[in-house]
């Protein structure tokens, strides 16, 4: 099961309604955390997210609204004596800030952290098989957007299997892609169909750029910053941010199924305005609110 819980929706300054940004993503068996802004630990508690299961933390960039909650999360995981290692994926140019955040207060660190500094965009190898890609955005300081894709997996079509093939052999077939059976080679693609791979796109913070479209391409859920409304388009450009209209255009041109807007400027108190604006371009748009839950659609079996 895949789902998102929005932990915060504020850019720069939080408000009574909006915490700094933060996003929790359950990707089947893995719990991932994106951009823990200030207050993220408490938001996890508020929205009943089990902090102990977090396996990977993604930082897009080191502006405070995207990372000031990291020390609390790390210390909590350590306090809880979490056994699994926690991987942190972040721009290498911000390494100094990451180390500062982790070492900003006295605590006995029990946590094993695996660091994945990104030196250049592309695929990031971690200790799981989900596909993780980082894309360079345009935000004045080095910032990466992320794209998460299911690994390639196959559904065996029983009617295509030769008679007499034991079930135990199917594991080997899935693993190796081919097995020998009664003097013949059986190839996986001949007897199975690939499962549909789901895609999550995360694009925050940036001005309009080519890579935003690549992150959003065919995404089942595309989370995009929308700091401003189009009435403030020149401000958005000056501060390297997007408007709701631009987010709608990215989602629409990239064939994203569901657009979720977040990272709102404190100058606007109503989230509906963002949704209304982007919906004119991309009808399946929702403006996020703190605590919002988005469940990915079930994948239908292809035969
Ligand atoms: Zn921000
Ligand atoms: Zn920023």
CATH hierarchy: architecture: 4-Layer Sandwich
Radius of gyration equals: 21 Å
Helix content: 10-25%
**How many structural domains?**
1
Bound molecules: zinc ion
Q: What is the CATH class name?
A: Alpha Beta
Shape descriptor reads: globular
Counted by DSSP, the helix tally is: 9
Q: Can you describe this structure?
A:
By secondary structure, the chain is an alpha/beta fold. The protein has one domain (2-153, 193-295): 4-Layer Sandwich (Metallo-beta-lactamase, Chain A), CATH 3.60.15. Helices cover 23% and strands 28% of the residues. The protein has a seven-stranded mixed beta sheet with strand order 6-5-4-3-2-1-18. A seven-stranded mixed beta sheet has the order 7-8-9-14-15-16-17. The structure holds zinc ion (2 copies).
Fold blueprint:
Elements: E1 2-8, E2 22-27, E3 30-34, H1 40-46, E4 54-58, H2 70-79, E5 86-91, H3 95-102, E6 113-118, E7 122-123, E8 131-136, E9 144-149, E10 154-156, H4 168-176, E11 178-181, E12 184-187, H5 188-191, E13 192-194, E14 199-203, H6 210-216, E15 221-225, H7 233-238, H8 244-253, E16 258-262, H9 272-279, E17 285-287, E18 293-295
Parallel strand pairs: 3-4, 4-5, 5-6, 14-15, 15-16, 16-17
Antiparallel strand pairs: 1-2, 1-18, 2-3, 7-8, 8-9, 9-14, 10-13, 11-12
Bound molecules: zinc ion (2 copies).
One zinc ion (ZN) is lined by residues 11, 63, 65-66, 205, 263.
């Amino acid at each position: 099961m895949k789902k998102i819980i929005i932990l915060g929706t504020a850019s720069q300054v939080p408000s009574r309604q909006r915490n700094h940004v933060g996003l929790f993503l359950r990707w089947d068996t893995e719990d991932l955390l994106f951009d823990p802004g200030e207050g993220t630990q408490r938001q996890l508690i508020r929205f009943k997210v089990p902090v102990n299961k977090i396996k990977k933390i993604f930082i897009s960039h080191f502006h405070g609204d995207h990372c000031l909650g990291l020390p609390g999360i790390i210390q909590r995981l350590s306090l809880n004596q979490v056994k699994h290692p926690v991987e942190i994926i972040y721009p290498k140019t911000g390494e100094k800030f990451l180390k500062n955040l982790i070492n900003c207060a006295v605590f006995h660190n029990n946590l094993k952290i695996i660091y994945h500094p990104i030196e250049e965009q592309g695929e990031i190898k971690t200790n799981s098989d989900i596909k993780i890609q980082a894309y360079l955005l345009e935000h004045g300081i080095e910032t990466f957007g992320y794209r998460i894709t299911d690994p390639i997996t196959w559904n065996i079509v029983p009617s295509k299997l030769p008679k007499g093939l034991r079930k135990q052999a199917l594991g080997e077939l899935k693993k190796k892609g081919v097995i020998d059976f009664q003097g013949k080679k059986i190839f996986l693609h001949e007897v199975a169909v690939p499962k549909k791979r789901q895609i999550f796109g995360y694009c925050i913070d940036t001005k309009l750029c080519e890579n935003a479209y690549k992150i959003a391409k065919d995404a089942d859920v595309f989370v995009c910053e929308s700091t401003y409304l189009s009435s403030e388009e020149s401000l958005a450009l000056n501060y390297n941010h997007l408007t709701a209209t631009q987010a709608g255009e990215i989602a629409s041109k990239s064939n994203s199924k569901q657009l979720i807007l977040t990272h709102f400027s404190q100058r606007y108190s109503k989230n509906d305005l963002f949704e209304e604006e982007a919906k004119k371009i991309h009808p399946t748009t929702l403006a996020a609110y703190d605590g919002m839950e988005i469940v990915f659609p079930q994948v239908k079996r292809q035969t």
